[in-house]
Amino acid sequence: MSEKKTPAAKEKKTAKAMPAAEKTAKKETTGNAARAEQAVVNIGMVGHVDHGKTSLTQALTGKWTETHSEELKRGISIRLGYADTTFYKCPNCRSSEAYTAKPVCKSCNSKTEKLRTVSFVDAPGHETLLTTMLSGAALMQGALLVIAANEKCPQPQTTEHLVALKIAGIKNIVVAQNKIDLVDKKQALENEKQIKEFLKSQGFENAPIVPVAAHLGINIDLLIEMIEKIIPTPKFETEKPLKAYCIRSFDINKPGSEIKELKGGVLGGSIIQGTIKIGDKIEITPGIDGKLMQTTVKSLSCAAGKLTDAKPGGLIGIGTMLDPSLTQNDRMRGQVIARPDLMPLPAKKLFLKMTFIERVAANIDKKIRTNDVLVLTIGAMTALGTMIKEKGGVLEIDLKTPAVIEEGGKIAVSRKEGGRWRLIGYATPEK
Question: What is the pLDDT of residue 25?
Answer without folding.
Answer: 40
